[in-house]
Design goal:
The structure holds two protein chains of two kinds. Chain A is built from five helices and two strands; from the N terminus they run βαααααβ. A two-stranded antiparallel sheet of chain A has the order 1-2. By secondary structure, chain B is mainly alpha-helical. Chain B folds into two domains: 64 residues; 69 residues, no CATH class. In chain B, 88% of the residues lie in helices and 0% in strands. In chain B, helix 1 packs antiparallel against helix 2 and helix 3 crosses helix 4. The chains are: A mainly alpha, B mainly alpha. Chains A and B meet through helix 2 and helix 3 of A and helix 1 and helix 3 of B.
Chain lengths: 63, 142
């Protein structure tokens, strides 16, 4: 699923490892999401949205 | 943030313990087997197997008692997909082998060795276990 996670992360000056630690998954998982190789669970999508203070649909685009 | 960082640290800690238990079981088990064989001491061989089983039990026990999931969701999905692929391969083997070996036996074209029948039986047992596991999981999720 397309997403703007890298841009949002860059804006905050966060590394993939920082974001991974913030939401409790491995750095590889964040990398896979950013590269559109893995779609996160609803729970993780909510955690990511909460981390960036936005809605899930602002961050992920299913089209 | 601290809470989730703790999740990662706890996950790493328990994974490390699991791997250590399994690794120790394998190494010590192999040492016991080797020593028992070289010194011709059966108790050492038995002890080696016992230690190996203890290592495996330790791995499972630590995983079971871990306060967090030892795999994150992507790792768990990789595991599920790999298991699914494995089952597909085993199912294909069973679908091809069971009737194939039966035809060879019935027509007398080839006397199928017991070993192959043993393999087909094992594949059939795995298929039954998969069916039972599906039934159980379906009940849990419905």
């Amino acid at each position: 699923m397309n997403n703007d996670l890298p841009e949002r992360r860059d804006e905050r000056g966060m590394s993939q490892a920082d974001l991974a630690a913030a939401v409790g998954v491995s750095r590889q998982t964040i990398n896979a999401i950013e590269r559109d190789r893995y779609d996160p669970s609803l729970e993780l999508a909510f955690d990511l949205a909460a981390e960036f203070d936005c809605r899930i649909e602002d961050m992920f685009d299913p089209n | 943030m601290n809470e989730t960082r703790n999740v990662l640290e706890t996950r790493e800690k328990y994974r490390s313990r699991m791997n250590s238990a399994l690794g120790a079981g394998i190494v010590l088990g192999a040492v016991g087997l080797l020593a028992g064989t070289l010194l011709d001491r059966d108790p050492l061989v038995v002890l080696g197997v016992g230690v190996y089983w203890l290592g495996v039990l330790g791995y499972v026990g630590i995983k079971w008692r871990a306060p967090v999931e030892v795999r994150d969701e992507r790792e768990a999905r990789i595991n599920r997909e790999a298991a699914e692929l494995t089952l597909d391969v085993l199912a294909a083997l069973l679908i091809v082998a069971a009737p194939g070996l039966t035809v060879l036996t019935v027509t007398g074209a080839w006397t199928v060795p017991e070993f192959y029948w043993g393999m087909v039986t094992m594949l059939a047992v795995v298929a039954m276990i998969v069916g039972a596991a599906n039934w159980y999981t379906e009940r849990k999720r419905s």
